Amino acid sequence: MRGKFMSKFVWFVVAALLLFGAVAFAAENKVVIGYSVQDLGNQYWQMVAQGIKDRAAEIGNIDVIVLDARTDPAKQLAQVEDLIQQKVDVILLSPWDPDPGGSCVEAANEAGIPVIVLDVGVNSGKIETFIVSDNLKGGEMAGEFIAEKIGYKGKVAHIQCQLGYVIPALRGEGFTKVMQKYGIEIVAKQPADSQRAKGMTVMENFIQAHPDLNAVFCENDEMALGALEAVKAAGLEDQIIVVGFDAIPDALCSIKNGGLAATVAQQPYEMGRMGVDYALKVLQGEKLPEVVYVPVALVTPENVDEFLGGRPCE
Amino acid sequence: MKSLNNQKSTLNVLRGLGSVIGLVGLCVILSIITPTFYKGSNILNILRQVSDISILAAGETFVILTGGIDLSVGSVLGFCGVILASVLKTTGSTLMGILVGLGLGSLLGFTNGMLVSKGGLPPFCATLGMMAVARGLAFVYTQGRPISSFEKSFRFLGTGYLGFIPMPVIIAFLVYLLVFIILKQTVFGRYVYSIGSNETATRLSGIKTDYYKTMVYTISGFMAGLGAVILTARINSGHPLAGQNYELDAIAAVVIGGTSLSGGEGSILGTLVGALIMGVIRNGLNLINVDPFWQQVVIGIVIIAAVLADSRAKMGRGR
């Protein structure tokens, strides 16, 4: 009874593997690029991965292996080890955090496989280059925008992504720096775990505590859209401006419809494409610069149409 | 009576066999699909990758055998990790760091045990609370920032080798050997099974069930502390988010290994096979480049299929 069922189960797994596994019998002359990414549950990283796949398909003769670490540093290290086992030609890495990321790079160094890091730095190991959105600069841009809008005085609030992540923290740092420069007081600061619903709750509390707020900076758009709802519910749209970061489609539409005041656009898709280009440069033996910046841009009602690229908004 | 016992042990062997067949089957399939899979280096790679989860699962096995459940192991691992990282940084002593990690894990486990036995809380609730508390404390303590880069002597536990075998694999092996002996050869092990089968009867026959229940959660906490030592050494960082969702992997390993969630039935070797099945599937899916979103689906299906096979087998025995 049991044996029969087990064999069924085994065959089921076979079927599943064959069905979903694009079995990679890499031809000898094909370039194989492995990409280990911290979290494919996030639109941003999906865009990076898409950029890598599209660019690789354009050039041709390149196999891409994408592995999703789901925000777990240990899992990411395990996946890099798996890529090493497969002897990929280049590893692209978007680590979850610079320190565990360093362990991944060290493992690849030992195996002699070159590593290019995308968007989150590493604290140890030898990398070919670091391709990064200038998050600190983005935070500064948002800060400058807010400062100008509120006339270089008043009270501002700061909503953070989940604590423990480096990238959003850099945005917050850039914003804080500009506020300090102008002597504008940040009266409230709280994490809302990158989520829209939590962004709303946190902002509701801020408004209760500081009804005289002039602006709020959110480290990502999801939270900004939540905070905006709280501002609207309190009827303070004319008093409080809301600025986000990421330029996700919903945020762009909100700017177009007079909701959010601004957001900062990164170019994840472009970053993925650059990753492939630089990987090929490594394989051709080129020496790469230490850091390659992917430009960021401030999105406001004036230029939002460029970023929407003709997509309709409701 | 004797024949009944014989029958029982045969059935137990059969229980374990199903997951073993599954594991062997998986390995054969993967070896056919990708030649990378059965290389020695990849096998060691898999063993190293599952060492963490398998250690947590060993502690979880004790708890589940008594009919309880420990949802806090992942969070306890995270909290122990940041505290021991901080101890390593301040004292510079590898031994201190390890002792604090193991001690704190045991203490949190002991607290779980007291809540369940003396407090009379359902294990699910007690450890769900601890899960939130430990994760919260990890964030409070670090303010969300990781504590990183340690001495070579400490990192050796996660990244070093003894001969050609990775250290985490050796530690996990020793843990399993010890747990095997405890469950098979000691009175303690017998009482763990007995509590899971029928707690009231066990208590009425004069056995201090409260004491044994407290002990199994303490062991589970200790294992989480040990997992924290290895993970922290492996990724060179104590991070407040470390060990997220590990409790689910650990419980899955126990369940795939044929241990019953209602307690009293199961084996530590089954848990080991369960952990290996999860590791082999993850590694295999990576090697054959399965879309990452599908990977989760496959793992979920395997869990369901394994437990289904088990319950079918039980039905077949005309329970």
From TrEMBL, chain A:
<dbReference type="InterPro" id="IPR028082">
    <property type="entry name" value="Peripla_BP_I"/>
</dbReference>
<dbReference type="InterPro" id="IPR025997">
    <property type="entry name" value="SBP_2_dom"/>
</dbReference>
<feature type="signal peptide">
    <location>
        <begin position="1"/>
        <end position="26"/>
    </location>
</feature>
<comment type="similarity">
    <text>Belongs to the bacterial solute-binding protein 2 family.</text>
</comment>
<feature type="domain" description="Periplasmic binding protein">
    <location>
        <begin position="33"/>
        <end position="287"/>
    </location>
</feature>
<dbReference type="Pfam" id="PF13407">
    <property type="entry name" value="Peripla_BP_4"/>
</dbReference>
<keyword id="KW-0732">Signal</keyword>
<protein>
    <submittedName>
        <fullName>Substrate-binding domain-containing protein</fullName>
    </submittedName>
</protein>
TrEMBL record, chain B:
<feature type="transmembrane region" description="Helical">
    <location>
        <begin position="248"/>
        <end position="281"/>
    </location>
</feature>
<dbReference type="InterPro" id="IPR001851">
    <property type="entry name" value="ABC_transp_permease"/>
</dbReference>
<feature type="transmembrane region" description="Helical">
    <location>
        <begin position="95"/>
        <end position="115"/>
    </location>
</feature>
<feature type="transmembrane region" description="Helical">
    <location>
        <begin position="161"/>
        <end position="183"/>
    </location>
</feature>
<keyword id="KW-0472">Membrane</keyword>
<keyword id="KW-0812">Transmembrane</keyword>
<feature type="transmembrane region" description="Helical">
    <location>
        <begin position="121"/>
        <end position="141"/>
    </location>
</feature>
<feature type="transmembrane region" description="Helical">
    <location>
        <begin position="293"/>
        <end position="309"/>
    </location>
</feature>
<keyword id="KW-1133">Transmembrane helix</keyword>
<feature type="transmembrane region" description="Helical">
    <location>
        <begin position="12"/>
        <end position="33"/>
    </location>
</feature>
<feature type="transmembrane region" description="Helical">
    <location>
        <begin position="215"/>
        <end position="236"/>
    </location>
</feature>
<feature type="transmembrane region" description="Helical">
    <location>
        <begin position="62"/>
        <end position="88"/>
    </location>
</feature>
<protein>
    <submittedName>
        <fullName>ABC transporter permease</fullName>
    </submittedName>
</protein>
<dbReference type="Pfam" id="PF02653">
    <property type="entry name" value="BPD_transp_2"/>
</dbReference>
<keyword id="KW-1003">Cell membrane</keyword>
